[in-house]
Amino acid sequence: MAQTYTISRLAAAASVNVETVRYYQRRRLMPEPARPRSGTRLYTDADAQRLRFIKRAQLMGFALAEIENLLDFRARRSCRTTRDLAASKLQSVDARIRELRQLRKELATLVAECDTNVNDSNCPIIDRLASEDLRP
User: Fold this and answer.
1) How high is the pLDDT of residue 57?
2) Contact in structure between 78 and 40 (CB atoms under 8 Å)
3) Nearest Cα to 25, choosing from 61, 50, 60?
4) 88 exposed, middle or buried (CB, 10 Å; 0-12, 13-18, 19+)?
5) Residue 57: exposed, middle, or buried by beta-carbon count in 10 A (0-12, 13-18, 19+)?
6) In the list 5, 83, 98, 118, which could disulfide-bond 10, CB 3.0-4.6 Å?
7) Per-residue DSSP letter, 44
8) Of 122, 124, 129, which is closest to residue 112 (Cα–Cα)?
9) Total-model pTM
10) Contact of 5 with 48, CB cutoff 8 Å
């Protein structure tokens, strides 16, 4: 027999907050079931699976707009299109990794400069942040 969920049980099943479910409903990522006479909306196993899908996609770095597409691709079973979206996300992740490596290098240099700084009133990190040089 299929299980039904209240919104709080649905949220708990996906380890999210109730407000997250409501937000996804406003964004039309999650359906909002009709309100029965009892007044309590009930969600299905399919709703719980969809909510977990959304959260897993977010954990993989997909934005909600991209997740909208993934949900559509899921319904249409479009592997090629899904692959293209994932390949684009991979390029973004690779670019961010390069940026983070550069940032790490700069921070390590600044920390090393602070370690050798004998004049505590001059801070290489503060000086760099106050600099008009926009390079990362």
Assistant:
1) 97
2) no
3) 50
4) exposed
5) buried
6) 5
7) E
8) 124
9) 0.78
10) yes
- CA distance linking residue 21 with residue 29, whole number of Å: 9
Residue numbers of the chain with a pLDDT score lower than 50: none
> Alpha-carbon distance 24 to 64, whole Å?
9
- Tell me the per-residue pLDDT of 75-114, one tens digit each, with 9 for 90 and over: 888 899 999 999 999 999 999 999 999 999 999 999 999 9
CA–CA dist 44, 25 (Å, integer): 15
Helix, strand and coil percent figures for the chain, each rounded to 5: 65, 5, 30
pLDDT of residue 128: 87
Two tokens, residue 46: 């399919």
Q: Which phi and psi angles does 127 have, rounded to 5°?
A: -60, -40
Residues in the chain: 136
